[in-house]
Write a structure and sequence with these properties.
heterodimer; A: 329 residues; alpha/beta; Metallo-beta-lactamase, Chain A; Rossmann fold; 2 domains; seven-stranded mixed sheet; six-stranded mixed sheet; 26% strand; globular; B: 555 residues; alpha+beta; DNA ligase i, domain 1; D-amino Acid Aminotransferase, Chain A, domain 1; OB fold (Dihydrolipoamide Acetyltransferase, E2P); 20 helices; binds zinc ion
Chain lengths: 329, 555
Amino acid sequence: MSLVRVTPDGLYCEAGDFYIDPWRPVKTAVITHVHSDHARVGSGFYYATHGSVPLLQHRLGEINCEGKNYGEKFKVGNTWVSLHSAGHILGSAQVRIEHKEDVWVLSGDYKRTFDPSCEPFEVVPCDTFVSEATFALPIYKWQTGAVTAKHLYDWWQSEPERPSIVFCYALGKAQRILAELTAYTDRTVYVHGAVHNLTEIYRAQKISMLPTRLVTDAHKDHDFKGDLILAPPSGHRSPWMKRFKDPQTAFASGWMQVRGARRRKGYEKGFVLSDHADWNELNLTITQTGAKTVYLTHGKTDVLERYLKEKGLTVKLFETDYEDSGEPT
Amino acid sequence: MKLFNELFQQLDATTSTLEKVDALKKYFKRAPEHDAVWAVLILTGRIQKKYLTSRNLRDSFLRTTGYPDWLFEESYAHVGDTAETLSLLLQSLELVQQDDLQERPSKPLHLWMESEIPALGKLKDETARADKLMELWRELDADQIFILNKLITGGFRVGVSEKLVIRALSEVFGTASDQISHRLTGPQEATVENFRRWVSTEVSELAVSQPYPFCLAYAWGDRKDENWRPEEWALEWKYDGIRSQVIRREDHVWIWSRGEEEITATFPELTQDFAGLEPGTVLDGEVVVLRDGLVQPFQDLQKRLGRKKVSAATLKEQPAGFIAYDCLEWKGEDIRQRPFSERRKILGEALAGLSSPRLQVSPILSLPPGSTLDDLESLRSQSRENRAEGLMLKAWGSPYIVGRKIGYWWKHKVDPLTLDAVLIYAQAGTGRRANLYTDYTFALWKEEEGERLLVPFAKAYSGLDQGEIDELDSWIRRHTVEKFGPVRSLRPEQVFELGFEGISKSNRHKSGIAVRFPRILRWRKDKKPADADSLGTALQLLDSVAPAREAEASP
Ligand SMILES: [Zn+2]
């Protein structure tokens, strides 16, 4: 029987009697990272990395949980479990499960591109690798965050008389932008409330980022001319934007790679910046793990499935409840 | 290519007119004249030569890379544009320059346009072509490859109008914009001399064959102007032909369409008539097919278009005519700034010496003083009987300007013909609409041996707002019956009101009718498919608007 399987509650490891990122409340949950489709409320006990715990408590409130170091082996049921850096956001982890001779690694969400706001991805050899496939099309290819941040910085500086608003995921993406921009400036960036609290949690963990200030803390006469503002996508075209006169707007997401996607959402500018692996990174990682069997969970699974099969790998699918879009489209 | 790419990215990333003009100005300030001349021609849509097809590009790419066919197709299905798909795949394969903030030397735009692209287009051997293409791609990054691919396939588009380009040139070089506009009329070579001529601040002699920029009208819509006074307005029928200018200068005649196409050779009988005009005359008017002094439907005129050689039979079957609207130049003098009332008098004078049955002066329709907008409406409702598509309103005091201006000229078309039809097929759009189903096919009911079936009769692309497009797109995805290639057949549930400009019988269409300029007026969510119109209704419409040819011939 396979070590991990899909149940109505989530990905389940019977030998250890625990779930990985369950989508319904369960007795024991191992959490890869704190994005809302992976970390859900109501389970009896949570394992997560030390980096994830404060974010988890912020998102889920009072919970029973235990923090673990990267690489620390701990026993759950009849299995040995350890968490290894996934390079996705602060505290993000792959879950390694060892049972008798069998080793599985579940990636959660991951990326290989360098990110100054979290630990880099670690390749963990295994027999079976469970991979995400959010951007599993060869058209997706990321430049380094430093290059994208330079473009973002130049775009911001090109309009000293207007507010520049960048919409992005409040957890992970916003902090990555704040960290990447330290290479080009030390100016204070204004942030939406949703971004603010999470950024403070990052700061408490010694992540070096630009100074930030809540938009609502600005003086009521402040006109935000020449300021950079970070906000979650839900702020776009909402009453919240009334505060800013004639802003230029941009969206930071991997989906911005395709021109049509950019236009459809009505953002003027798109910055290609993703917290997920691109096509080359997915393939590189799958090869490097040495896994003979690969499971794909969410995203463009069909294309990658065929591609890997043609290379001689055994590929199977897990039908999960994780968001295909991975980041807002 | 580097500067031009920067310009493209800036134009592409804004919807603001002001920012677009700023980006253009920045470009024209920095670009060498030899590149700027190409940029003007490309941006104003004058360069659309297709050196290779998208298919050629794709095949070349697959040939040199050995890339799996299916993986290309999957990528294309997601992106919806071959030029863009190739640029992204080349980037992903790391075969081309990556965006690494490094300055790299890049060939100037004119070199691409004059040497590289035409040389590529000449290669007939597929391997040689594929090798050359890869060599060109390697020099560029993904954004530039996208532009190159568009230039090679003649598909380059970006959201700027000619007006904005001219405005930017005018602001950078201090040349009056209507001067530039006029100098840009007609075919243009991409030479440095030409660019200097366009932006020269010296008032120059006109190129002898060139027409003036056309004066245009705004749509009247449902204006309710309380102070409207009939005596201030010249009313004319708006005919559905080809708006044209006749240039009679030195010992030549030229006829130019509004699309800036020279159509002199297409209408030899008119050219011959106009030779009788005094040299130094320019007229504005409508080229139509005129039979027994009556204007014929546009479909007849269409049979004469696009031919450089006209057969005697065609001349006889579809005789051309010209309905004169305006006089722009008289005795060699540009009279466009004089009021319309004066120009109309001169028009009469200019044509007085000609007696050809093919030439008419557009009649001025009169409404007595004190007439109201209701009277105007009732006059407009007689358009179809008068073989017109509506009314033109021209202020008697208006000059002949470049483009349009509120308060000078209005066009007031008859209500478009309308039918309620059922949506039956959808296809993804192209370019920026590639991920949305925006090309729709509509059907009408047909009674056949007691059965009712839906027969496709029109395609329409426009008329919905973005919200409706998104809503319909999501409905389409959930109600697909079958996919064949890019087309989805749909459950026949949604009814739309379509408007169109003309309707005629057609043997080439399954439905037996052809409509002109169909567009979506409204999504009729209040209607069931069974409530949609039938072909029978469409045929009645046809009878009411276009008296059958046979009936006209016999008195
Ligand atoms: Zn995630």
